[in-house]
Amino acid sequence: MLRNDKISQTHDYLAPLTRDSRHPVVDWRAIMTDAEQTLFGVLDKELDKRGYKPRDVKVKPISSGGANYTSKLFLVDVTTPKENLKLFAKVAIIAGQLRQTMSADWLFATERLTYTKIAKFYEDLQEKYNLSGEVKLKFPKFYGCNDEYGKETVIMENLVASGYKPFNRLKSIDWQHASAAVEYLAKFHALSFALARDIPEEFKELSDLKYEIGSQQSDDEITKSVWEKIIKGAIAVVKEEHKSRVISYFQNMPKFNTYNKPIGKPVLSHGDFRVSNLLFKAEVSGISFYVT
C-alpha cells in the first residue's frame, strides 16, 4: 500500500510571486512536490473566485497514519483582510495498476459529485422544510475541486480546527459514538427519500450509479491476485477447525453488487461509512458528528 509520509515543515506561499530588490526572488514551485503544485493551482483559482486578495497561504502536508493511501493530505491556513480560513485538502497520488484495481476514477468522481451536487440538493431540501439546526444533516463547507486525471483535488473546511477529531480506528467504537453515527446515516438516507419524492428526475440520474463499481469490467488476473492475498490473510488467523468453512465461503460467495441491491426502495448510500471517515466532537447536548 502507498502511505502518506509525515512531513513537518510548512510551506509559505505568496501568490503571485513578486520581486523585491532587497531580497532574491524565490520560486516556491521549484521546491514543491507535484501534489503541492496541484493544490496551489486549485487554491489560486478558488480563492481568487471568492475575492480573497491579498492573501497569505500556508500549507502543511500531514499523514493519516496509514488510514488513507489514495491521496496526499494537507492543512491550509489562509490569512486575508476579509477573513481567515482553516482548510483541509486532498490531492490524488494513486496511480498505475493500483488506481485501476481500486476503481479510483469512480471514487474521485463520486466524491466530487457528493460535494458539488448532492450536498446542495440536501441543503436545499432541509431549508425547504425548515429543519432546525440541531437536526439538520451537516456537510463540511466545500471550497472547490479539480477533476484533472491523476491530480484530482478536493478542498473543504478543516473540521479538526473546530474541535472535531476521528475515533481511534484500531479500537472498537463505543455506544455513544456508534449511535451518533447511525443517527447521521439515518438522516442521510431520509434525505435520499425526500430527493426521490421532490426531485425524481435528479434522483433517477443519481441512482443509476448505484451498481457501477460492482458492474465494472475488471482484469481477471488482477482481481484473482488481490483476492488470493485477502483469502490467505483471513485463513492464516482463524482456528484450524474453521479453515475449511472459511475457504468454502470464499469459493462460493456472491458477487459484490449482490450486497448493494436494495431490498425495497433504493437510497443513495455513503458507500464507505467506516470509522476512518467519521469525525466527532463532544458537546453539551451530546456528540456532534460529521462524515467525510
From TrEMBL:
**Entries under SMART domains matching the protein:** CHK
Identify the species of origin: Pieris brassicae
Q: Which residues form a coiled coil?
A: none
Q: Where is the CHK kinase-like domain?
A: 154-292
In this record, what's one Pfam family? EcKL
Fetch the PANTHER family from UniProt. PROTEIN KINASE-LIKE DOMAIN-CONTAINING (PTHR11012:SF30)
Report what the protein is called.
CHK kinase-like domain-containing protein
Question: Origin, by domain of life?
Answer: Eukaryota
Q: Which InterPro entries match?
A: CHK_kinase-like (IPR015897), EcKL (IPR004119), Kinase-like_dom_sf (IPR011009)
